[in-house]
Amino acid sequence: MLFVLVLAIFMSLISVSIVNVALPSIASSLDASQSELQWVLSGYALTFGVLLVAAGRAGDIYGRGALFITGVAVFTLSSIASGFATDAFWLNIARAFQGIGSGLLSPQALGLIQQYFRGAERGRAFGIFGGAVGISVAVGPLLGGLLIEAGGVEQGWRWTFFVNVPVGIAAIILAWLWLPKPLLGRTPQFDPTGAPVRRDLDPIGAILLGLAVFAVLLPFVEAERHPILWLSLPAGIGLTLLWLAWERRYKRRGRSPMVDLAIFRTRSFANGTLLISLYFTGVTSVWVLVALYMQDGLGHSALESGVVGLPSAVFSALAAVWGGRNVTKFGRIVVISGMYSAIAGLVLSILVVFLHDAGLASEWWLLLSLAFVGAGQGLVMSPNQALTLAEVPLRYAGSSGGIMQTGQRIGTSVGIAVITALAFGVLPFTNWAVSFGVGFVAIILVVVLALLVAYADLRQRTRGLVQ
Question: Which end of the chain has a smaller Cβ tally under 10 Å, C or N?
Answer without folding.
Answer: C
